[in-house]
Amino acid sequence: MLNFILLIFIYIGIYAIAAMGLNLIVGYTGLLSLCQAGFLAIGAYTTAVLMTTFHMGFWESMIISGFIASLFGILIGIPTLRLKGDYLAIATLGFGEIVRNVILNWDSVTKGPMGINGIPGPSIFGTTLSSMDKPAWIVIIWIFVAATYYFIRRIIRSRVGRALEAIREDEIAASSMGINTAKYKIGAFTTGAFLAGIAGSLFAAFNQSVAPLTFDFMMSIMILCMAVLGGLGNSFATIVGAVIIVLASELPRLMGISHIIPPQLNQILFGLILVLMMIYRPQGIIGRIKLNYAKIVKEEISDLEK
């Protein structure tokens, strides 16, 4: 039981990183993206290939994986600049499916449906971690969760964050005020993809294997549910949403009744959560944090004066 609880905390941390990246795109910028699982897959497979084929270390592989995922974030961000709402969602959904099918059929690199096995864990102070070292993994992953939270908090409390929120509220008005909406929208996609790539790298190293069927459309929906459930535009609420969603999806296994619960239950559960939240509490459980911009501007002025 303790081993399973530690495993849940590890997955909560990994998904929280990806969900906070998605929240930057959806919650703060107002762009509906359904391809976060695709960015996770890119990060996971990049780490897997670099570590098994080129025998690189985990830490450099993770950074490279994040940057490669962010490059694909730029690629998906540029053609979707003119798309909004449902059309943007369909475009990003298509991108996620393209990534999964490329991984599934590029046998020479990704090993196709068999996936890649034998991925070594990170080396810390000369010791290589395995998936059995769960307490150490919890510390590492939740350090990344805290760093991601702080990173996004700094973005949102800066001029960049105010520009992103202006785009979310009224893109035409933001553009008329001189905000380069294209630059900020691509930047949001790039940053969100980078964080998903980091999460995918951690996912691959912890599981020591990757398979294409893991990164399907339902993973993107699950990550979106985490952001919506906690509250769009609130990183802490996204972490709370990740806790609730992961616990809800793993509850049958935790209670020992997974053999009588159909695997399609998660799909029903995620869809039901989205529908109910949109009807009864669209702001999420915690809701969006309203920043005191007057205070933030005063702090920036005082910092400049120093």
Shape: globular
Rg computed from alpha carbons, rounded to a whole number of angstroms: 19 Å
> Major sheet, described briefly?
2 strands, antiparallel
- Tell me the total number of β-strands: 4
Question: What keyword list fits this structure?
Answer:
306 residues, mainly alpha, globular
Report what the structure shows.
This protein is an all-alpha fold and 306 residues long. The protein has a domain at 2-215. It contains 13 helices and four strands. The strands form two sheets. The protein has a two-stranded antiparallel ribbon with strand order 1-4. Strands 2-3 form a two-stranded antiparallel ribbon. It is globular. The mean pLDDT is 87.
Produce a short descriptive summary:
The protein has 306 residues and is mainly alpha-helical. The protein is built from 13 helices and 4 strands.
Describe the secondary structure blueprint for this structure.
Layout: H1 2-28, H2 36-52, H3 58-77, H4 85-105, H5 107-110, E1 116-117, E2 123-124, E3 127-128, H6 134-156, H7 159-169, H8 171-176, H9 181-207, E4 209-210, H10 217-230, H11 235-255, H12 265-280, H13 293-305
Antiparallel strand pairs: 1-4, 2-3
Helix pairs in contact: 1-6, 1-9, 1-10, 1-11, 2-3, 2-4, 2-9, 3-9, 7-9, 10-11, 10-12
